[in-house]
Amino acid sequence: MTNKSPMEESSSDKASRPDKAGVTLPGKVEKIIHPANPAEPEKAQINVEGAEDLYREIRIDNVLQNEKGEAVRLKQGAEVEVTVEAETAATIKKNGSTPPSSGRP
Length: 105
Fold this sequence. Notes:
Blueprint: H1 11-15, E1 20-33, E2 43-48, E3 57-61, E4 64-65, E5 71-72, E6 79-87
Antiparallel strand pairs: 1-2, 1-6, 2-3, 4-5
């Protein structure tokens, strides 16, 4: 197995990995935030559909890598996918709709 950065993995790589649990949500780049200090990276603010209102917006460094390994950046208004993955060992099976016990009586 080759070591790939998250930016180099294709969707077929991710789909064939049974050791991971995950979810992918649609999102949209709301705005590009230019840094006050030129030494700081530009940020992309992304609205994640399906997230709770207070946590819907995330900001990431606006540096991605295309399939050729070239550095690229997102445009305002771009449709994106936000993926959250975890090792299977870091997850527990969901049992019905009962929330997990807090340990309190």
